[in-house]
Design goal:
Helix content is 38%, strand content 27%. The protein has 196 residues and is an alpha/beta fold. The structure holds S-adenosylmethionine (SAM). One of its GO terms (biological process) is methylation.
């Protein structure tokens, strides 16, 4: 259900704001890029084809994967598709220059494993680029996120409103080089470097 309605549910927020963030974070990416949890391929229109050597995408939900394949075809974007979970990536160590995830870490079952895998498949000095909604530093808002999360998780395919993604990233050893917060830190753009 969630997979089927995802693009429709996101539509208004996409048009108003998220599309501009997607464009900002993916349009400049170069080299061998892996996008995990690519969903319906919502970032695909914003990659610069000429800059990419390779774009691989991984997604566990077969319904979303099919929509992403259709989108890549429409855009004539050469994407390698993999069905799977980011906790166990089917790639060799250091295979990518950049690993991207947008609105994904909130939904994975084991964020620590995912960050470990991102580091493993990213080359030394490579980039980890994320755009996520996270647990805010505002105490009252965070309390609301904690309250809503159990129901939200059931409605939205395991999504946690209160995930402390920044902390997991820091604990993984990835060096944070950029952090841009939006809406009291409910949404955050992170850019990290893999120290190897
Ligand atoms: C809110 S959607 C975001 C989709 C897309 N990245 C975007 O920006 O629109 C969350 C995505 O994470 C995927 N996901 C959930 N658990 C995952 C996991 N363990 N590994 C990889 N992707 C996962 C879901 O299937 C879904 O496509």
């Amino acid at each position: 259900m969630f997979a089927f309605f995802y693009d429709k549910l996101m539509g208004p927020l996409e048009k108003k704001w998220i599309a501009s963030v997607r464009k900002k974070i993916v349009s400049g990416l170069e080299g061998n890029v892996l996008e995990i949890g690519a969903g319906t391929g919502a970032n695909f229109p914003y990659y610069s084809k000429g800059k990419l050597e390779r774009l691989a995408s991984l997604e566990p939900n077969p319904y979303m994967l099919e929509q992403a394949k259709d989108r890549a075809k429409e855009l004539d974007l050469p994407v390698e598709f993999y069905e799977g979970r980011a906790e166990s990536l089917p790639f060799k160590d250091g295979e990518f220059d950049i690993v991207v995830a947008t609105l994904v870490l909130c939904s994975v079952s084991d964020p620590q494993k995912v960050f470990k895998e991102m580091r493993r498949v990213c080359k030394k000095g490579g980039k980890i680029v994320l755009f996520e909604h996270v647990r805010t530093e505002s105490k009252s808002l965070a309390a609301l996120q904690d309250f809503l999360t159990p129901a939200w998780k059931r409605l939205c395919d395991g999504c946690h409103l209160n995930r402390d993604t920044g902390r997991y990233m820091e604990e993984s050893g990835i060096e944070l080089v950029k952090e841009k917060k939006y809406f009291k830190g409910v949404f955050v753009e992170y850019e990290g470097v893999n120290p190897g």
